# Entry
Amino acid sequence: MNDLDGSGVDVVHDLNNFPYPFGNCKFNYILASHVIEHILHPIKVIDELWRIIKPNGILEIRCPNFSAASSGGLQHYHKFAHDHFRLFTKHDNQQYTDRYWKIIEEKIEFVPYPFKFNIFGGLMEKITNINGVTKTLYDKTFLHCLFPNTNLNIKMKKITS
# Structure
């Protein structure tokens, strides 16, 4: 699905318009790669994706981390940190939605950008992604300035009970 017609596009639809043109529980896996930062209402989008994904289906979201150089594009409405997606889990916050996800993977990705020969990228990726504490330490301190990251990769499983 895309908002522009083109090669490999089966369905043309503006993701800011709800509901999406699919029935309930249609997909086992949905990849939203560099989409959610362009959406006006990401909470509504994640709720709508919950509707169209099958029980125990996987939603994978890839987007720029808030501190990544690419997160400030003119068409980016939102910036995301790794812990923002916890708002969609049953135990962290129930004020946004009654449709819940279980986070099964949460990764801050590093590549040698903007430094062509950044030898620390691989090491920082391993250290930063040890657990939630190390991710928060990276995001909330000067480390994200010293060791630039690129993306978040979040995988969530639909919870129906």
About this structure: The chain has a mean pLDDT of 84. The CA atoms of residues 11 and 34 lie 18 Å apart.
